[in-house]
Amino acid sequence: MANLLDLSNVVRISLLSALRGLPDVNTSALAIITDDEPIPSNFGDARQYLNATGVADDFGSSSTTARMAERVFAQTPNILTGRGFLQIIPRDQDASAQPATVLSRENVDLTQLDGDDYHINVAVDGEAASDLEIGEVDTSSLSAAQDSLNSTAVTGAGLVFSLTGEVTSAKVELSTDSDGATSEIEVGDSETGTDIAPILKIDGESATGADAGVERPKDTVLRVRDKVPFFGIVLTEKLDDSALTEFASLIQTLDKLFFAPSHEFSDVDGVFSDIVESGFTHTRPLLYTESETDAIDFAAGYASRGLSINFSGENTAHTMHLKELIGFTADDLTQTQLTAANNAGVDVYANFGVPKLFTSGANQFFDQVYTRLALVLRLRIALFNFLAQTNTKIPQTEAGMASLKSVAEDVLERFVTNGTFAPGEWNGPAAFGDPEDFKRNIREQGYFVFSIPLAQQSQGEREARIAPVIQAAAKDAGAIHSADMTILVEA
Q1: At 34, which helix (H) or strand (E)?
Q2: Residue 16 has pLDDT above 80, yes or no
Q3: Torsion sign over Cα 356, 362, 363, 366
Q4: What DSSP assignment string belongs to 211-247?
Q5: What is the pLDDT of residue 230?
Q6: Positive or negative CA dihedral for 198, 201, 205, 207?
Q7: 402 pLDDT band (50/70/90 cuts)?
Q8: Which of 24, 401, 423, 444 is the most buried (most CB within 10 A)?
Q9: Distance CA 371, CA 439 (A)
């Protein structure tokens, strides 16, 4: 019998499996953080819902949580339109005491820490503030940088630095090693050496700890942020001024939005103005004066209507201005009150003969904050997946950079399609790349993506396999919220 030779002598075939990537962050996922206790004993950290019936089953039909869920799903459109869901997250009723913790407002490039005389000014647990020596920071790795930040002076003052992420994009946490409501942190301005707080994006931040017992909403978010998917947040209670300010400070450090309600007009010139002046754009102040219960429900309805954008659709982007919410009557506001709310960046439900939301750009318009967060999250995921889902490598060549930039262009094109961006004239002085290419792309496409030639990249970045920075610009489509008209009549 003849010997059969293996066909691999001639043809060799390898079957490659597709590598895993990350799904887009669901920016229509709304969380109700509740102090209601769920009925099922095995509820877990959270549960997802696509209707209000399931919420009533798990919390009782007369609960605050179920009532808010009804307001969420009553809106048209609502979070389901954006392919979202409702996430119910109960607060721990028997939580342990928590330390005071501040977080960096954004990710930090630790390689900027190239000095040798860093200090930080902190007041800890009510004691007088003092400048604490850190010295030089080893940025060779995340753990080395963390060890450097936790200098003898820092740990001796009862503080602990924790770092997560990457050296070039780290999230910084500074906590007390004490727990409870008397645990406090207040970051000031160091007058010794080089102040490290602004570089770590924690300058001016302050926080308090919590005693054991019912968990604070802040601590609930910190507990579940890496375990439970959600983007928008509403609460079953109205926070007092200090708790609201601290919660807003936390949410500003995260890629999330918080809808803060009040039924008291005094909050317009009070805590809401403080939030807006602090630049806490991720917190959306809402006034509905009927009652505290109605204001809390109003926030749930507003959030569901606001987070309804399906970013994969065509002309789906919207503004909340002059929209209606189902289940709510108009507030009885005077012109003076409307003007004050508008100046303070507080959205209201006004009576124009029909009830209409009246929104303000003093805290940026809601749709601006929402769509830009959605853009950043989708760009981050798209670029990561491009790098993570190749079975070979992306060459560090102009062709490789063109492929990388095309991924960003695809995301930006999607935001032109959904109506967030639009072609137009670039009116500002800032530009990059060839000025004519920049303006032409904005005029014709609505966006421009650019990177410097690889030949101009530093050798250190090339050896570290870091791509030249990708710069992008886009023209906001904006929205028409009011109009003026003149009429010339001749007899």
Answers
A1: strand 30-34
A2: no
A3: positive
A4: -SBSPPHHHHHHHHTTTS--SEEEESSPPPHHHHHHH
A5: 97
A6: negative
A7: very high
A8: 401
A9: 23
